[in-house]
Amino acid sequence: MIKTAITQMFGIQYPVICGAMMWLSKPSLCAAISEAGGMGNLTAGNYETEDEFRSAIHEVRKSTDKPFMVGITILPSVHITPEHHAMYARVCAEEQVAGIEVSGTPLDKGIGVDALEQLKKAGVKLFHKVGSVRHAKHAEKAGYDGVYAAGWEEGGHPLDDDVTTMMLTPRIVESVSIPVVTVGGIADGRSLAAALTLGAQGVMMASRFVATRECVVHDNIKQELINRQEHETTMFCKSLGLQGRGLKNKVIYEVLELESRGGGFEELIPLISGQRVKEAWENGNIDHAPLMVGQSIGHIHGIMSCREVLDSMCEDAVKHLDKAKALFH
After folding, report:
1. CA-to-CA distance for 22 and 120, rounded, in angstroms?
2. Which of 90, 127, 237, 306 is 20 to 30 A off residue 312, Cα-Cα?
3. What is the pLDDT of residues 267-319, one digit of tens each?
4. 39 phi and psi angles, rounded to 5 deg
5. What is the fold, at CATH topology level, of the domain defined by 5-217+301-325?
């Protein structure tokens, strides 16, 4: 057992949190991760109505009595409206979920200070995923309980400051007094050990959990993550001010070509729509949509259960920390 501020805050065995993943972070995967000693994630954007969202929370609780995070992403979206964001926050407070991962616009600015205060009053721990010291300082000042230091290596939408995990984690650790969780490039015991030595109190990872038996995604996708290496992701949609990191594939190259000749949102959206991504996860067509995974795919070597991932990861982390300690006499 690795004891950190994160394991103590939530009463979990391992300081490993699953990140929000659209279409994938659903009750079965969320519960499996939490039950295995980590912190599962239920991604709010998967649910269009309050009843669906609340039912998903209840479904997780039927499978585990362990705590889990809810992921709320406050970014421009075709289908997820500001009203959805407000509903997600309200339901999380009413259901007293353990914690919330906020990505994009800070919750206090994107939904309102009242929502933040309602969540804190309900005992919900609030974490903001940030890519800079300035945003981490804002989160601390606003009353968040911790921050995710999200390096440029991460899948999804890293901040366009383009700062790597190795640099970002210690900079944020030395700049705020709330717990810091490292994000980006995390997939195994070595990366967990590295994050802890950089001052983090835990890690968040998502790509590694895609290649697990409990993740409901086509086997072609899981095998592709095993086959691909760390250099086989790339950044796209910088021209829209919403850069993302995804697996290099046919549609990503089409997007980059469109961007290079000045293509706008109306031309790009058919290629990057959430519905297209959902279809790719389900049918296993690697080239059909942007698959938002990070450089950590270079560390994915097999399909395991969530429990096997967490047990081996934390056991290896201790071994690597002991090995480093043995260098000093």
Report:
1. 25
2. 127
3. 999 999 999 999 999 999 999 999 999 999 999 999 999 999 999 999 999 99
4. -125, 105
5. TIM Barrel (3.20.20)
